[in-house]
Design brief:
With about 260 residues, this protein is α/β, with parallel strands linked by helices. It has helices spanning about 10-20, 45-60, 85-105, 140-160, 190-195, 200-215, 250-265, and strands at about 1-5, 25-30, 40, 65-70, 105-115, 165-170, 230-235, 240. It has one domain (about 1-265): Rossmann fold (3-Layer(aba) Sandwich). Mean pLDDT is about 90; it is low at about 215-225.
Protein backbone atom coordinates (compact mmCIF):
# COMPACT_ATOMS: atom_id res chain seq x y z
CA UNK A 1 0.00 0.00 0.00
CA UNK A 2 1.14 3.54 -0.80
CA UNK A 3 0.25 5.81 2.12
CA UNK A 4 0.90 9.53 2.56
CA UNK A 5 1.48 10.90 6.06
CA UNK A 6 1.58 14.68 6.32
CA UNK A 7 3.58 16.32 9.08
CA UNK A 8 5.72 13.18 9.16
CA UNK A 9 8.59 14.73 11.11
CA UNK A 10 6.42 15.67 14.09
CA UNK A 11 5.90 13.41 17.08
CA UNK A 12 2.70 11.66 15.98
CA UNK A 13 3.57 11.71 12.27
CA UNK A 14 6.99 10.15 12.80
CA UNK A 15 5.50 7.45 15.01
CA UNK A 16 2.83 6.68 12.40
CA UNK A 17 5.41 6.47 9.62
CA UNK A 18 7.57 4.12 11.69
CA UNK A 19 4.66 1.83 12.54
CA UNK A 20 3.32 1.68 8.98
CA UNK A 21 6.75 0.91 7.55
CA UNK A 22 7.26 -1.80 10.15
CA UNK A 23 4.03 -3.36 8.87
CA UNK A 24 5.44 -3.36 5.35
CA UNK A 25 3.69 -0.40 3.76
CA UNK A 26 5.29 2.15 1.46
CA UNK A 27 4.97 5.48 3.25
CA UNK A 28 5.46 8.88 1.64
CA UNK A 29 6.17 11.25 4.49
CA UNK A 30 6.01 15.01 4.12
CA UNK A 31 7.85 17.80 5.88
CA UNK A 32 7.37 21.54 5.81
CA UNK A 33 11.14 21.93 6.03
CA UNK A 34 12.84 20.81 2.84
CA UNK A 35 16.09 19.88 4.59
CA UNK A 36 14.60 16.62 5.90
CA UNK A 37 16.08 13.94 3.66
CA UNK A 38 13.73 11.16 2.68
CA UNK A 39 10.61 13.31 2.98
CA UNK A 40 8.79 15.19 0.28
CA UNK A 41 8.43 18.92 0.96
CA UNK A 42 4.90 20.06 1.69
CA UNK A 43 3.58 23.13 3.46
CA UNK A 44 -0.14 22.47 3.57
CA UNK A 45 -0.91 26.10 4.36
CA UNK A 46 0.46 26.98 0.91
CA UNK A 47 -1.61 26.34 -2.25
CA UNK A 48 1.50 26.37 -4.45
CA UNK A 49 3.23 23.82 -2.20
CA UNK A 50 0.21 21.50 -2.35
CA UNK A 51 0.10 21.77 -6.14
CA UNK A 52 3.84 21.08 -6.47
CA UNK A 53 3.52 18.07 -4.18
CA UNK A 54 0.61 16.64 -6.17
CA UNK A 55 2.36 17.21 -9.47
CA UNK A 56 5.41 15.37 -8.14
CA UNK A 57 3.27 12.35 -7.28
CA UNK A 58 1.66 12.46 -10.72
CA UNK A 59 5.04 12.68 -12.44
CA UNK A 60 6.19 9.60 -10.53
CA UNK A 61 3.04 7.66 -11.45
CA UNK A 62 2.09 7.06 -7.81
CA UNK A 63 -1.32 5.68 -6.95
CA UNK A 64 -2.53 6.09 -3.37
CA UNK A 65 -4.14 3.66 -0.96
CA UNK A 66 -4.12 5.93 2.06
CA UNK A 67 -3.79 9.55 3.19
CA UNK A 68 -3.27 10.53 6.81
CA UNK A 69 -4.01 14.23 7.24
CA UNK A 70 -1.84 14.66 10.31
CA UNK A 71 -0.05 18.01 9.86
CA UNK A 72 -1.35 20.81 12.03
CA UNK A 73 -0.39 23.82 14.09
CA UNK A 74 -1.44 25.90 17.07
CA UNK A 75 -0.28 29.52 17.18
CA UNK A 76 -0.44 32.09 19.94
CA UNK A 77 -0.64 35.12 17.68
CA UNK A 78 -2.75 35.89 14.63
CA UNK A 79 -0.94 35.28 11.34
CA UNK A 80 -2.05 34.78 7.74
CA UNK A 81 -0.93 32.61 4.83
CA UNK A 82 -0.18 33.76 1.28
CA UNK A 83 -3.91 33.95 0.48
CA UNK A 84 -4.76 36.06 3.53
CA UNK A 85 -6.44 33.28 5.53
CA UNK A 86 -5.67 32.98 9.23
CA UNK A 87 -2.76 30.56 9.46
CA UNK A 88 -4.19 27.97 11.89
CA UNK A 89 -7.32 27.73 9.75
CA UNK A 90 -5.21 27.62 6.58
CA UNK A 91 -3.05 24.81 7.95
CA UNK A 92 -5.39 22.62 9.94
CA UNK A 93 -8.54 22.90 7.84
CA UNK A 94 -8.01 24.52 4.45
CA UNK A 95 -4.79 22.58 3.87
CA UNK A 96 -6.53 19.31 4.74
CA UNK A 97 -9.43 20.19 2.45
CA UNK A 98 -7.32 21.32 -0.49
CA UNK A 99 -4.78 18.49 -0.29
CA UNK A 100 -7.43 15.78 -0.02
CA UNK A 101 -9.45 17.15 -2.92
CA UNK A 102 -6.32 17.57 -5.05
CA UNK A 103 -5.14 14.00 -4.42
CA UNK A 104 -8.46 12.24 -4.98
CA UNK A 105 -7.76 11.57 -8.69
CA UNK A 106 -4.65 9.66 -7.57
CA UNK A 107 -6.51 7.44 -5.09
CA UNK A 108 -7.37 3.84 -5.80
CA UNK A 109 -10.96 2.80 -5.19
CA UNK A 110 -11.34 2.06 -1.50
CA UNK A 111 -8.38 4.19 -0.47
CA UNK A 112 -8.53 5.36 3.14
CA UNK A 113 -8.58 9.07 3.98
CA UNK A 114 -8.00 9.70 7.68
CA UNK A 115 -8.48 13.18 9.14
CA UNK A 116 -7.11 14.20 12.52
CA UNK A 117 -9.44 15.89 14.99
CA UNK A 118 -8.97 16.84 18.62
CA UNK A 119 -10.45 16.87 22.09
CA UNK A 120 -10.73 20.62 21.55
CA UNK A 121 -13.80 19.99 19.39
CA UNK A 122 -15.71 19.87 22.70
CA UNK A 123 -15.20 23.63 23.07
CA UNK A 124 -15.66 24.62 19.44
CA UNK A 125 -18.28 27.22 18.55
CA UNK A 126 -17.93 26.94 14.78
CA UNK A 127 -20.69 28.72 12.88
CA UNK A 128 -21.09 30.58 9.58
CA UNK A 129 -18.74 33.31 10.75
CA UNK A 130 -15.90 30.77 10.55
CA UNK A 131 -14.03 32.61 7.80
CA UNK A 132 -14.53 36.04 9.39
CA UNK A 133 -11.47 35.74 11.57
CA UNK A 134 -9.25 38.75 12.22
CA UNK A 135 -6.61 39.83 14.69
CA UNK A 136 -9.19 41.43 16.99
CA UNK A 137 -11.26 38.25 17.43
CA UNK A 138 -8.48 35.65 17.27
CA UNK A 139 -8.24 33.16 20.13
CA UNK A 140 -5.36 30.70 20.33
CA UNK A 141 -7.43 27.81 21.66
CA UNK A 142 -10.76 28.84 20.16
CA UNK A 143 -9.40 29.17 16.64
CA UNK A 144 -7.61 25.84 16.95
CA UNK A 145 -10.79 24.16 18.21
CA UNK A 146 -12.87 25.59 15.36
CA UNK A 147 -10.29 24.48 12.78
CA UNK A 148 -10.48 20.93 14.12
CA UNK A 149 -14.27 20.99 14.15
CA UNK A 150 -14.12 22.14 10.53
CA UNK A 151 -11.97 19.08 9.75
CA UNK A 152 -14.61 16.90 11.40
CA UNK A 153 -17.35 18.46 9.28
CA UNK A 154 -15.22 18.12 6.15
CA UNK A 155 -14.84 14.39 6.82
CA UNK A 156 -18.62 14.05 7.21
CA UNK A 157 -19.31 15.75 3.91
CA UNK A 158 -16.45 13.93 2.14
CA UNK A 159 -18.00 10.68 3.31
CA UNK A 160 -21.46 11.74 2.14
CA UNK A 161 -20.24 12.77 -1.31
CA UNK A 162 -17.53 10.20 -1.99
CA UNK A 163 -17.96 7.41 0.55
CA UNK A 164 -18.85 4.94 -2.20
CA UNK A 165 -15.41 5.49 -3.76
CA UNK A 166 -13.11 6.00 -0.76
CA UNK A 167 -13.17 5.17 2.95
CA UNK A 168 -13.23 8.17 5.29
CA UNK A 169 -12.36 7.96 8.98
CA UNK A 170 -11.45 10.33 11.83
CA UNK A 171 -8.67 9.91 14.37
CA UNK A 172 -8.34 11.61 17.73
CA UNK A 173 -4.83 11.08 19.14
CA UNK A 174 -5.68 12.46 22.57
CA UNK A 175 -3.23 14.64 24.48
CA UNK A 176 0.22 13.68 23.21
CA UNK A 177 3.65 14.85 24.30
CA UNK A 178 4.50 16.87 21.18
CA UNK A 179 5.60 20.33 20.07
CA UNK A 180 2.03 21.49 19.59
CA UNK A 181 1.55 21.55 23.38
CA UNK A 182 3.97 24.45 23.65
CA UNK A 183 1.70 27.48 24.03
CA UNK A 184 4.40 30.18 24.08
CA UNK A 185 3.06 31.33 27.44
CA UNK A 186 4.62 32.01 30.84
CA UNK A 187 3.29 28.73 32.21
CA UNK A 188 4.97 26.50 29.61
CA UNK A 189 7.87 25.47 31.91
CA UNK A 190 5.40 24.59 34.66
CA UNK A 191 3.24 22.61 32.24
CA UNK A 192 6.31 20.78 30.96
CA UNK A 193 7.14 19.77 34.50
CA UNK A 194 3.68 18.80 35.73
CA UNK A 195 1.58 18.03 32.67
CA UNK A 196 3.80 16.51 29.98
CA UNK A 197 4.69 13.40 32.02
CA UNK A 198 0.95 12.57 32.05
CA UNK A 199 0.54 12.88 28.28
CA UNK A 200 0.48 9.99 25.85
CA UNK A 201 3.64 8.90 24.09
CA UNK A 202 3.72 9.66 20.34
CA UNK A 203 3.37 5.93 19.59
CA UNK A 204 0.12 5.90 21.56
CA UNK A 205 -1.13 9.00 19.76
CA UNK A 206 -0.35 7.47 16.37
CA UNK A 207 -2.10 4.16 17.11
CA UNK A 208 -5.67 5.23 16.24
CA UNK A 209 -4.48 6.82 12.99
CA UNK A 210 -2.70 3.65 11.93
CA UNK A 211 -5.74 1.59 12.87
CA UNK A 212 -7.98 3.88 10.82
CA UNK A 213 -5.72 3.64 7.78
CA UNK A 214 -5.69 -0.15 7.87
CA UNK A 215 -9.24 -0.81 9.05
CA UNK A 216 -11.51 -3.18 7.08
CA UNK A 217 -10.66 -4.66 3.70
CA UNK A 218 -7.71 -3.87 1.47
CA UNK A 219 -8.34 -1.21 -1.21
CA UNK A 220 -9.60 -2.72 -4.44
CA UNK A 221 -8.61 -1.77 -7.97
CA UNK A 222 -11.98 -2.94 -9.28
CA UNK A 223 -14.08 -0.40 -11.16
CA UNK A 224 -17.26 -1.77 -9.59
CA UNK A 225 -18.90 0.50 -7.00
CA UNK A 226 -18.13 -0.42 -3.40
CA UNK A 227 -20.58 -0.45 -0.51
CA UNK A 228 -20.23 2.74 1.52
CA UNK A 229 -18.25 2.04 4.68
CA UNK A 230 -19.37 3.87 7.83
CA UNK A 231 -17.56 7.00 8.98
CA UNK A 232 -15.78 5.98 12.18
CA UNK A 233 -13.94 7.84 14.91
CA UNK A 234 -10.77 6.10 16.15
CA UNK A 235 -9.49 6.73 19.68
CA UNK A 236 -6.87 4.73 21.50
CA UNK A 237 -7.22 1.14 20.30
CA UNK A 238 -10.96 1.45 19.73
CA UNK A 239 -13.36 2.94 17.22
CA UNK A 240 -16.98 4.00 17.22
CA UNK A 241 -19.56 5.75 15.12
CA UNK A 242 -19.44 9.53 15.28
CA UNK A 243 -21.38 10.80 18.33
CA UNK A 244 -24.67 12.52 17.50
CA UNK A 245 -23.51 15.80 19.04
CA UNK A 246 -20.89 16.15 16.29
CA UNK A 247 -23.12 15.15 13.39
CA UNK A 248 -24.04 18.43 11.71
CA UNK A 249 -24.97 17.56 8.11
CA UNK A 250 -26.38 20.96 7.18
CA UNK A 251 -23.34 22.78 8.54
CA UNK A 252 -21.06 20.28 6.82
CA UNK A 253 -22.70 20.98 3.46
CA UNK A 254 -22.50 24.72 3.99
CA UNK A 255 -18.84 24.54 4.99
CA UNK A 256 -17.92 22.47 1.91
CA UNK A 257 -19.66 24.85 -0.45
CA UNK A 258 -18.35 27.97 1.29
CA UNK A 259 -14.82 26.57 1.28
CA UNK A 260 -15.03 26.02 -2.47
CA UNK A 261 -16.19 29.58 -2.84
CA UNK A 262 -13.46 30.96 -0.60
CA UNK A 263 -10.74 28.96 -2.40
CA UNK A 264 -12.29 29.63 -5.82
CA UNK A 265 -12.27 25.94 -6.72
Amino acid sequence: MNIIVTGATGAIGAAAVSRLRTLGHNVIGTSRREEHDGYRPLDISSPSSIEAFAQGLEADGIRLDGLLNNAGTLLRHYQTNSEGFELVTATNYLGTYRLTRRLMPLMNRGAHVVCTVSLSCHISHLDKSFFDLHSDNYSQIGSYADSKMAVMLFAQELHRRHGDQIVVHLTDPGVVDSRILHMNRWFDPLADLLFRPLCKRPEQGALPAVNALLYSSEPSSSSAPTEKAPLLLFRGNRHSHLPNRWQRPEMARWLWEETERQLKL
